[in-house]
Amino acid sequence: MNGHCRVWTVVVIVSAIWLVQSVCKAQVAASLPEGVKAVWDLAKADRATTPTRERVCINGLWQWQPADAASDRVPAGDWGYFKVPAAWPGITDYMQKDFQTVHPHPSWKDEHFSGVTAAWYQRQITIPDGWTGRRIAVQAEYLNSYALVYLDGKRVGEMRFPAGELDLTAVCRPGATHVLSALVVAMPLKGVRLSYNDSNAAREVRGSVARRGLCGDVYLTATPAGAHVADTKVDTSVRKGQITFEAALQDLAPDAPYTLRAQVSDKGQEVKTFTSKPFRASDLRDGRIALTEKWLPEKLWDTHTPQNMYQYALSLLDASGQVLDVTCPVRFGFREFWIDGRDFYLNGSRIFLSAVPLDNAQIGAALASYDGARESLKRLQSFGINFVYTHNYSCQPGAHLSFAEILRAADDVGMLVSLSQPHFGDYDWQTPDAGQTNDYARHAEFYVRVAQPHPSVVMYSTSHNATGYNEDMNPDLIDGIYDERSPWAMNNVRRALRAEAIIQRLDPGRIVYHHSSGNLSSMHTSNFYPNFVPIQELSDWFEHWATQGVKPFFTCEYGAPFMWDWAMYRGWYKGHREFGS
User: Fold this and answer.
1) Mode of pairing for the β-strands spanning 511-514 and 457-462
2) Between the CA of residue 171 and those of 94, 163, 204, what are the distances in Å?
3) Is this structure's pTM higher than 0.85?
4) Cis omega before residue 581 (within 30°)?
5) Can you give the three-state secondary structure of 523-572, one letter per residue?
6) Tell me: the pLDDT tens digits for 134-151?
7) Which of 439, 436, 441 has the alpha carbon at shortest distance from 196?
8) Closest CA to 185 of 166, 158, 216, 165
9) Own/partner pairs for 565-573, CB < 8 Å, 24+ apart?
10) What is the structure's pLDDT at 71?
């Protein structure tokens, strides 16, 4: 025992010496302009706390520097600073903009950031004293694309796109200060998939990643070391007058009985409590348990009543009623959105959707913030828009920043949202078990978890521009009945429907639509660009659908006439047909 203590003491001393040397070198090497500070005091950080767990945000200015993707040692100096979360600067186009400032070290101040494919991050963390006996982890909410994580200079694990969590319990100590470092590599989807088997080879995979780095919030978390709740979900039904809570549970004892308790509150006041029947680990399905109860509150979330929000927390109890875990409160709104024939219904009232794409998660950190997103959504509402679809047509690494604050803003202003799901075309579907082996389900589940507490998210969009056909704008064939495609087009349809089945299994409560796909699944959708159509003909375009149609028609892109129609797209110029230039 004494021998162990002596060894442990030596480790702590060596670790402390490394920490002091590392921080001192970094402080000598790095500089910040007057008035700019890197604040690493966790006492000042945003946090969420329950009797059994805590989550602390570690966003802010981190030490940062460009790196070689093959790096395997934490730099001793040459640190600059860059903010977390944000995409690395240097890639700008008609949509993506730089909003965050790099504070460079003199040794790399002339670096062209557009070509950076890897970078080091570093900051101090002090583990709270009260976390003794808990599982301690670091979480990256949205990661583009792969991170090797180090604590006090020693490699402790890895995280990968789209989000990551790494257990630090064995390598950190409550009350101690550590240096957290990460080598983040911007690798394409092919590299991410390869990294599960060969992370070194994966770091050499080249490909386009537009938004690189730690692109979502980063947290330190403390959760129970034993049986605990890993994830939660809520579904509400106005038609059935019921609410369903679902929880993923981990580390349950094989034969012990447990119960799940859901507590709903409104502005801090408890309004409803539900408790499940006793269950055992063998009763879980895919590691999850559900609790369904009758309840229809008077206050429903709607486009005109977005303030009608509640909070819920789930507790896991043992056979004696002792609380083993209590989750952090989750905001939600009680609402139901569905299709009946040609029409959409929200909480029992027919609703007409006026839609545009939303680019905030692609443009940059300022517009992906809560304030930036709220301002965008309020402006759209001012001229009649009540529905947006996130404009990332794929969900590959770098396609967007975190949606967390955008969806929170949509909840608060009453904007309906369709959240893009991964595109089936980015995955291999050649084998019968592809749905379980090609990572599509893994990534689709991430986007379901992003959407799950938000009443604003009523749909998922997918298959963008990949399953349409020549007649999808034909006014006599827009009815949800006509469904003739070429054999080539049917190949894509079969893959799209396999992807849809995965999304529906993960979240049966939301509608899935296929973007610009004609008559497919839940509705008929079209990129509707009719050029210079006479006004009467345009007014009559949807008459057949309005009288004979059996499902909604969605002009998911609309332009009549579109800006391209005024110039090159109308014909040939000097022997060349130009599209959208």
Assistant:
1) parallel
2) 45, 21, 29
3) yes
4) no
5) EEEEEECCCCCCHHHHHCCCHHHHHHCCCCEEEEEECCCCHHHHCHHHCE
6) 999 999 999 999 999 999
7) 439
8) 158
9) 565/529, 565/531, 565/532, 570/531
10) 93
